[in-house]
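Practice problem: predict the structure.
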Amino acid sequence: MLYQVKAGDSLSSIAARYYGDRSKASWIASQNHLANPNLLYPGQQLQLPDLPTTSSISLVSPALLSALCPSLSSDAITNFCHALDLDLPKAQITPPLCVAHFMAQTAHESAGYAQLRENLNYSASALSSLFAKYFVGVDVNSYARQPEKIANRIYANRMGNGDEQSGDGWAYRGRGIIQLTGKANYQAFSQGWGVDVVSQPDLVATDPVLAVASGCWYWQKRNINAAAEADDLTKVTQLINGGTNGIDDRAHLLGIAKQQMNLN
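Answer:
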């Protein structure tokens, strides 16, 4: 339906009124390609599409999500299933084999949709092992177990971030189901999806619709559907990960997804 904004309206109040759920504000913004969802004006027209209903065919069933993400609460499963039904079609991730690969990969990347913020709480030895090139001539002990300081160091001056003192590394650390990282990627996702996460980056971790949308955006940007439709787990993993880290667990999760979706 077409809705005309009235004085005093906000996206969250509109979402609460028409969907009974204030969290759907981000979806309204996305569907209407609003660069700044906080700027509405009386007379502005917004498209309010119908939400999937319980009678709709769901791309991701609660049983599938529960099998892949056993630590999720029933409320979280409901919220993520709704988010997946909203976001997957927008990124054209609808062929069953693509959905199976997407769910397996994102379940691995997010530890079962339970870790939507990057864990940067590294010890000195881990920093020396994983990020040695960023600590040449620097005492890693002065960074150990300080996630914000670590992020600002290892993500400085790349991926659109400023220098270490800018704080961009921490502000735009990995979030969402595929760990959207770097200011440039937050900007590109905001432009591509029509929701401002540059000024509010933590929405990618706290809003299920945007946590899923960020993964869908990245998947579409990398054209991962092609490898998924070829059922090429190695290629899909390389496109997600840059290598084949965790491929055994990814294969295990893909097997679960295929079994739940009757794709074996």
